[in-house]
């Protein structure tokens, strides 16, 4: 029968501490297409009516200014129901969903986003007639965001 001191000595020598490395999933263009289809379903997506104001070259992907506006009178009969913003390479492809009503006044949203790497950003607007309109932009990021690894 080992003594307490011997047991602790042996236990200390064989203790294994697992080290977890958490990394974000590697995003793919297929994930972007899936995220878009989750919002629009099988509806056709047209190009036009939507304007994406985002710098084509950003130094730091941690805070990228972005404005999405849609050509709409924002009346009770003709307005933008929602604006959805997606990206190609971030761990989560859906950046945000913004819901509007005719009383919103303007069909425009402004925010700052994080971009993990050089990638495509897509903005899709759903109008009151349930049509979908899109615009996309390719953004070059020199200092990536969303890539921190925890050890």
Structural class: mainly beta
Q: What pattern of helices and strands is seen along the backbone?
A: HHEEEEEEEEE
So how many helices?
2
Helix content: 10-25%
Q: What count of structural domains?
A: 1
Strand content: 35-45%
Characterize the overall form: elongated
Q: Using only CA atoms, what is the Rg?
A: 23 Å
The residue-averaged pLDDT reads: 86
Looking at this structure, what is the CATH superfamily?
Answer: SoxY domain
Q: Distance N terminus to C terminus?
A: 39 Å
Architecture per CATH nomenclature, i.e. the level-2 architecture = Sandwich
CATH topology: Immunoglobulin-like
Which regions contain 5 or more consecutive residues with pLDDT less than 50? 19-23
CATH class category label: Mainly Beta
List how many beta strands DSSP finds.
9
Q: Mind describing the biggest β-sheet?
A: 6 strands, mixed
Written account of the structure:
It comes from Bradyrhizobium campsiandrae. It contains 2 helices and 9 strands; from the N terminus they run H-H-E-E-E-E-E-E-E-E-E. The chain is mainly beta and 151 residues long. It has one domain (27-143): Sandwich (Immunoglobulin-like), CATH 2.60.40.2470. Strands 1, 3, 5, 6, 8 and 9 form a 6-stranded mixed β-sheet that branches. Strand 8 and strand 9 (132-143) form a beta hairpin. The radius of gyration is 23 Å and the shape is elongated. The model is unreliable at 19-23 (pLDDT under 50).
What layout of secondary structure does this protein have?
Elements: H1 4-13, H2 29-40, E1 45-47, E2 50-53, E3 57-60, E4 64-70, E5 80-87, E6 94-99, E7 108-113, E8 119-127, E9 132-143
Parallel strand pairs: 1-9, 3-9
Antiparallel strand pairs: 2-4, 4-7, 5-6, 5-8, 8-9
């Amino acid at each position: 029968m080992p003594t307490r001191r011997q047991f602790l000595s042996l236990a200390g020598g064989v203790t294994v501490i697992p080290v977890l490395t958490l990394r974000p999933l590697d995003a793919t263009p297929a994930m972007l297409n899936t995220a878009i289809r989750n919002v629009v379903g099988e509806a056709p997506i047209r190009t036009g009516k939507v304007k994406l104001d985002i710098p084509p070259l950003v130094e730091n992907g941690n805070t990228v200014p972005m404005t999405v506006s849609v050509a709409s009178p924002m009346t009770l009969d003709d307005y933008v129901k929602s604006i959805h913003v997606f990206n190609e390479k971030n761990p989560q492809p859906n950046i945000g969903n913004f819901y509007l009503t005719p009383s919103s006044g303007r069909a425009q949203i402004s925010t700052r986003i994080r971009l993990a790497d050089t990638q495509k950003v897509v903005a899709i607007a759903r109008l009151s007639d349930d049509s979908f309109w899109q615009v996309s932009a390719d953004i070059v990021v020199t200092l990536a965001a969303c890539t921190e690894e925890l050890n």
